[in-house]
Structures are given as structure tokens and as C-alpha cells.
Design brief:
The protein is mainly alpha-helical. The chain is about 55% helix and about 10% strand. It is built from five helices and two strands, in the order αβαααβα. Helix 1 runs parallel beside helix 4.
Length: about 100
């Protein structure tokens, strides 16, 4: 969701370096999985369902509007920016849990 929100925040076509500790997310683009899913009618092949399809389609659409370079960072490895993102994300999760009680 962070990648989606970040790309949605852009007001015009941009070249973006998108850093993520999610190998699944980064590899979907770098290894061509996402392009294959699109070619296979949004399935993983042999009709296998893609989980969170709506999010993948949204993200794919956004990446078609921008030039995105994907960069994999190691999670929980004392990367200053990754640690900050993790803190912000866990804080938002906690806030949402409190509001939904």
C-alpha cells in the first residue's frame, strides 16, 4: 500500500526510485512477474488467482504513468529510512486499531 500511496501522491509524470524491503513487491516488477500476470489475464498462469489483485492492478496502472526504478532494501537491518517507514507504518496500524475497537 505504501508504494501505491507514494505514487498516487505524485501530481505529474515523474522518474521515481522506489525503495522497498518487500522482495515480493520488487521482484514482481524486476523479475517480470507482473508483466506475465497482465499477459495471462491477471492470473499467475493455469488460472491461479493473484492475491490482492485490486492492489496489483492499481499499482500497475500507476507504474504506467511514471518511470519507476525498483530498489530492494534489506528490512530490519538498521537502514535509517526503512526504519523510519516501519515506525510510521506500525504507528498508523496502531491508530487504526484504536479507532476500530
Amino acid at each position: 500500500m505504501a508504494a501505491i500511496k507514494g505514487l498516487e501522491a505524485l501530481k505529474e509524470k515523474c522518474r521515481v526510485k522506489l525503495y522497498s524491503d518487500s522482495a515480493y513487491l520488487v521482484n514482481a516488477f524486476l523479475e517480470g512477474w507482473l508483466e506475465n500476470w497482465v499477459k495471462n489475464g491477471w492470473t499467475r498462469g493455469k488460472g491461479k488467482e493473484i492475491k490482492n489483485l485490486d492492489l496489483w492492478q492499481r499499482l500497475y496502472s500507476l507504474t504506467q504513468q511514471h518511470s519507476v526504478q525498483w530498489v530492494k532494501v534489506k528490512g530490519h537491518s538498521d537502514n535509517e529510512y526503512n526504519n523510519r517507514c516501519d515506525k510510521l507504518a506500525t504507528g498508523e496500524i496502531a491508530k487504526n486499531k484504536e479507532n476500530n475497537v
